[in-house]
Amino acid sequence: MNKITVIGSGSVGSTVAYTLTVKGIASEIVIIDINEKKAMGEALDIRQGVPFCTPTKVYAGSYADAKGSDIVVITSGIPRKSGQSRLELAQVNVDMLKTVSANITKYAPDATYVLVSNPVDILTYAFHKYTDIPEAKIIGSGTILDTARLRARIAEYYSISQKNVHAYVLGEHGDSCFIPWSLANISNVPTCDFGACTKPLGDAKVYPDFVESEIEEYVRKSGAKVISRKGATFYAVSMSVCHICECLLSGIDTTMTVSTMMHGEYGIDDVCLSLLSVVGHDGAHTKVMLPMNDKEIALLHNSADCLKSIINSITF
User: Fold this and answer.
1) Do the beta carbons of residue 27 and residue 57 sit within 8 Å?
2) Which residues in 261-281 are b (16+ Cβ under 10 Å) and which e?
3) Tens digit of each residue's pLDDT, the chain (316 residues)
4) Alpha carbon 11 to its chain's center
5) Which residue from 12, 78, 205, 252 has the least number of CB within 10 angstroms?
6) In the annotation, is 173 catalytic?
7) Contact between residue 42 and residue 82 where contact means Cβ atoms under 8 Å apart
8) Cα gap 275→169, rounded to integer Å
C-alpha cells in the first residue's frame, strides 16, 4: 500500500495525479490545493476513470489528510508565462513554499519530498532551509526532464530506441544547464560516431549530420517552445515526476539526474543542482561522480554560480 500526496491541482499537479493513477503507482492519492473546489473537481474526474485502471483511492483533502504519505509531490506555485524565465519566479514561489512546507511537514514528517515547481533548484534549496527533512528525502525534479528531451532528440537523429541512448543534462534546470558530451553514447558508442559505426545488411542508412549545438539549443528551448504554443508544459514533466515516484517505491536503485544539495562535489557547495544520483527506497542517497573533463566541470561551476546569484538575491 503506497500513499502519495500531490500539493497543487493546476496543470502539472492534476496531470501528476492522473498519471500516477493510470500507471498504478500508488494505492492512495491525495490532492491538496488552496482552491478546494478545483482539487475536488480534479480528484472526481480522475476517480471516475479508476474502473479502467489499477484500483486507486483518489480524493481531495487537507494537509492533515497527508498523514502517512510515502511521497509528497509539491507542484504549487505561480506557473511560468511565455517569455518569462524560471528564475524570475523565484521570490514569489519561495514565499509560497515557506507556507506550504510548514503546513505539510508536520503531518508527513517521514515522507520523501519531490519538488517540481519552478525555479526547481531554488525551491529545493529553500525546502532544505525551511524544514528538518533528511537531505536524502528532498529531491528536486531537476534536469530529469531535460535529460529525457536530450535522449529523445538523439534518438530521433539515429531512429533508434531512446532506451539505447545514455546521455545527461546536468546543472540548473534552466538556461545554464549543459550536456557532458564526453560521456554521451549510444550502446557505448560515442553519439557523434554512431552513424559511422553502423553496418546495415541492406542499403546503408543516411543519417543527418550530428550537430551538438543544435541538440543543446533544442533542450534549452523546448520548455519555452511548448509554453508559447499551448500555454504550459505538463505531460512530459508529469511523466518524469511519476518515474521518480516509481523508483522511490521500487526495491531497486535507479540513477537519474535530479536536484540535490551539494557538499563539495566538484568543488561546489551550498547549492542545489542536478548531478547523476542514485534514487531508491532511501531517497536520493548517493551521487555518481561522473568522469567529466575540465571544460564540463567549468560548465557545472557556471551553473552553480548562476543559481547562487539568485539565492543571494532572495529573502528566505
Assistant:
1) yes
2) bbeeebebeebbbbbbbbbbe
3) 899 999 999 999 999 999 999 999 999 999 999 999 999 999 999 999 999 999 999 999 999 999 999 999 999 988 766 666 656 778 989 999 999 999 999 999 999 999 999 999 999 999 999 999 999 999 999 999 999 999 999 999 999 999 999 999 999 998 899 999 999 999 999 999 998 888 877 777 778 889 999 999 999 989 889 989 998 899 999 999 999 999 999 889 999 999 999 999 999 999 999 999 999 999 999 999 999 999 999 999 999 999 999 999 998 8
4) 15
5) 252
6) yes
7) no
8) 8
Q: Which three cell numbers mark 127?
A: 525546502
Taking the C-alpha atoms of residue 140 and residue 173, their distance in angstroms, rounded to an integer, is 10
Instruction: Sort residue 208 into left (φ over 0), alpha (ψ -120 to 50) or beta.
Output: beta
Residues in the chain, total: 316
Is pTM beyond 0.70 here? yes
How far is 150 from 155, CA to CA, in rounded Å? 9
Pairing of strands 283-288, 269-280: antiparallel
> Amino acid identity of 14?
S
Q: Catalytic pick from 128, 166, 173, 285?
A: 173
Assign 3-class secondary structure to the chain.
Answer: CCEEEEECCCHHHHHHHHHHHHHCCCCEEEEECCCHHHHHHHHHHHHCCHHHCCCCEEEECCHHHHCCCCEEEECCCCCCCCCCCHHHHHHHHHHHHHHHHHHHHCCCCCCEEEECCCCHHHHHHHHHHHCCCCHHHEEECCCHHHHHHHHHHHHHHHCCCHHHEECCCEECCCCCCECCHHHCEECCEEHHHHHHHCCCCCCCCCCCCCCHHHHHHHHHHHHHHHHHHHCCCCHHHHHHHHHHHHHHHCCCCEEEEEEEEEECHHHCEEEEEEEEEEEECCEEEEEECCCCCHHHHHHHHHHHHHHHHHHCCCCC
